[in-house]
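Final report, closing paragraph on structural work. Over the funding period we assembled a curated collection of sequence-structure pairs, and we close with a single example.
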Amino acid sequence: MADPRNTDPRMTEPRNTGPRNTDPRNTDPRARAQPGPLPIANSAHPVSDQLGQVRITRLIHRSVTTIVLACLGFIVITIAILLVAWYLLVALGPSALLVALALAAIPLGGVLLFIRWIDRWEPEPRVALLFALLWGAGASVLIALIFSGVTQHYAALAGLTGSGVASLFETVVQAPIVEESAKGFGILLILWVMRRTFDGPVDGVVYASTVAIGFAFTENIQYFGLAINAGSGVGGDVAQTFLLRAILSPFAHVMFTACTGLFLGLAARRTGRLGAIGYFVLGLIPAVLLHALWNSASYWATDWFRYYFMVQVPLFALAFVGITRLRRHEQRLTHSRLSEYAAVGWFSWTEVNVLSTAAGRRRAIGWAVSNGFGQPYRAFVRDATRLAFARERLVNGRDGIGARFDQDIMLAAIVNDRRSLVGLPPLP
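Its predicted structure, as stored:
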């Protein structure tokens, strides 16, 4: 039985037999611009005899556990969404709710496109992203509403209802702590359940951003609905609310919660499930502070728009630069790990250069599309990227059994991708 800690790619026999550019230093732009040789794989299957029955049984058990937990999670989220929808319907009324829903969908769509750009290099499972979005829109909102109700109850008992102290506490202290904890806990759940697909900081930011925009979507429905019911018309409170929440600050919640996601992404590479709790707490600190800074501006900023352009805009720009650097790190990681396979014949160096740059991928896919095999080449790019990240987990000693299994599966997929590119049927 093969040792799952063995990280040498040579233990899996290379299947490519075509011509190679054997110089790893080759960075000729012309090499990057073309997909390179696409040799036919032989018929041996790299998974067939390398996983023992014990390891397979453990993987099946783990997969079943993940499915059960995911189903339970979606049940909980469904209940939360129904309760939140009922609350909004009662609070706003059906007409205002429908209009507010349409208005809130505008920033939601824009931010989801941005998240897709972040996640483009190594996309996360759609079911996990759906869970993140629904957790933000339902469960985290419900948690915030419950805590808000409890706070208002005790404020009433203390005779502080409507006072400036109660309002300040709820806005600057309670809301940032409760909301960021509720949103962040959803990311932590994804890390615990979907650990095999949670590869690092970029994944953490993607999940955090998805949770955050789900929360902002529901919150925007409430704010837009209240503005509509104020009776000032589209030219009054509704227009002002839409400007502030949909135009100027659609990424506010995303930026706050991304801090928690970033730390949990680091936890995915450095520690286990229990250790991730410490990273979760650390990530909450900047998330809560940024949220509190944003909420407190109405109390101390004499000119809110000046504060926005002098403080928040630079913070947004800094966050964008950080995300860009994280995406480039993913590209370097892809090049590094695929180079190990190229050294033993699984890829040509030309292919490694193409697969590890965004520009190279675009040109290669364009070339493939123009020659009539765009879909199989996209599959080849996707599987090669997943292979690189599976190997990263294997080399770092994280999830050795699952990482070894995923590596074998991706190698088998690449064999079939190459066969598809030359018109051969996939191997069984």
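Residues 9-54+332-421 form one domain. Residues 1-6, 15-52 have pLDDT under 50 and may be disordered. We thank the funder for supporting this effort.
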